[in-house]
Amino acid sequence: MQPDFLATSLHIVAPELIMALGTMVLLMIGVFMGEKSAQTVTGLAVALLIITGLWLTLVAPDGAAFGGSIVLEPFARFMKVLVLIGSAVALVMSVGFTERERFDRFEFPVLVLLSTLGMMLMVSSGDLLTLYMGLELQSLAIYVLCSINRDSVRSTEAGVKYFVLGALSSGMLLYGASLIYGFTGQIDFKAISLVLTGEPGLGLIIGMVFLLAGLAFKISAVPFHMWTPDVYEGAPTPVTAFLAAAPKIAAMTLLLRFTIQAFGPLHDEWRQVIIFISLASMIFGSFAAIGQHNIKRLMAYSSIGHMGFALVGLSAGSVAGVRGVILYMTIYMAMTLGTFAVILSMRRRDGMVEEINDLAGLSKTNPVMALFLTFLMFSLAGVPPLAGFFAKYFVFMAAVEAGYYTLAVIGVLASAVGLYYYLRVVKVMWFDEPAGEFVPAAMELRVVVGAAALFIFPVYLLVGGPISAAAEAAARTLF
């Protein structure tokens, strides 16, 4: 390996190296300082995520490292920044909760950092091996995070369920990758694309479907959604917030890169799979959430539906469609983190509560929190002029431009059905008799809720232009 080649590659992967080395240092700090180091390690972990984000934004150059195994371009840069923001906010929100629930161990932020490192590799993966390596690094850390509260049966059950089903999906993904390599002789995404000429063989199509199934599991799309409600409900709430934000962005990014870059010539084949998953997720997520009473399970089914909406943009297979997906995931992360900050604030003197009916009369006991949560619910439902409306508008318009009118119409109808269960939360807050006051929320939770509410309305109307332009530039680099 030439020195110049190695130096260039190391410069490109510097953000990942910073994250990896910093995580090892924090692990050593935790080991030598003991359990009392949890708060210190968490603070340093957030600082490490910020430093990595600044290096990624200001210093790291575009290019391909190690023969194209890892790539960095505007698309990867944009999505990595989203992943880092999601991880940092989830860590900040976890501080008070972990201390109250008595599992404030230094391993928690270390595992979040390791998972984030895996996500960064996923976002920048240029071949099948890096794809699998990043996916497994991300997943293995999350399996432990879900069951990190060893005193909770629900947490342990959530970790076991996610591990068993995650292992199944990883096997499917790896089998699909092996078939793709066997029928193309390539693992590099761009090289695979160049090989795909003429009519594809059945084995190659099967490999593509298996790999798409493995990625669909990671974004909890139907029919690979079965883990989502139980894991969302059983895992500690900060872990659920983390799981609902950053990993979804990384997996969706990987899905975009794989379909557009590796299997671009076979767009008619993978579009059929994506359209089916999109339709099933939108419809199932919208109807299954109606009967939910636990707000974390409600957010789980909401997440399934939103992944279906995002996939509408990918179905178009165009620059406009990918841009729509990028914007959708950006807005979805803000809405989700803000909502989970409210869920973490649902605490009475005798402990945490998670039932939707526990929000009864919140407008009278905490009108500011009720107002912000109302904004978030309306945005998740896609009510104009909130940011959630624009998110759905971009992906639906991309589908219409590509000629998928039926898909767009079904998406609008599914969104109208979803409006019901979001309005039910609003109705409980504003019209039901108060069920009791919550303990005042921690400052960090109030900041997250306020920032999320401001982002979706009205700040998004001001910053949406630059964000949309950056998403446009990011989308074009995939083509």
UniProtKB/TrEMBL annotation:
For biological process, the GO terms are: ATP synthesis coupled electron transport
* Keywords associated with the record: Cell membrane, Membrane, NAD, Quinone, Translocase, Transmembrane, Transmembrane helix, Transport, Ubiquinone
- Keyword hit for Lyase: no
Pfam family of the protein (one): Proton_antipo_M
Q: Kind of enzyme, top EC level?
A: translocase
Q: Which InterPro entries match?
A: NADH-Q_OxRdtase_suN/2, ND/Mrp_TM
Q: What is its EC number?
A: 7.1.1.-
| Catalytic activity annotation | a quinone + NADH + 5 H(+)(in) = a quinol + NAD(+) + 4 H(+)(out)
Q: Which residues form the NADH:quinone oxidoreductase/Mrp antiporter transmembrane domain?
A: 125-416
- GO MF term list: NADH dehydrogenase (quinone) (non-electrogenic) activity; NADH dehydrogenase (ubiquinone) activity; quinone binding
Membrane topology per the entry is: Multi-pass membrane protein
Q: Which family does it belong to?
A: Belongs to the complex I subunit 2 family.
Task: Name the job this protein performs.
Answer: NDH-1 shuttles electrons from NADH, via FMN and iron-sulfur (Fe-S) centers, to quinones in the respiratory chain. The immediate electron acceptor for the enzyme in this species is believed to be ubiquinone. Couples the redox reaction to proton translocation (for every two electrons transferred, four hydrogen ions are translocated across the cytoplasmic membrane), and thus conserves the redox energy in a proton gradient.
Per its UniProt record, what NCBIfam families does this chain match?
Answer: NDH_I_N, PRK05777.1-3
Query: What is the name of the protein in this document?
Result: NADH-quinone oxidoreductase subunit N
This chain's source organism reads Consotaella salsifontis
Starting at the broadest rank, the lineage of the source organism is:
Bacteria, Pseudomonadati, Pseudomonadota, Alphaproteobacteria, Hyphomicrobiales
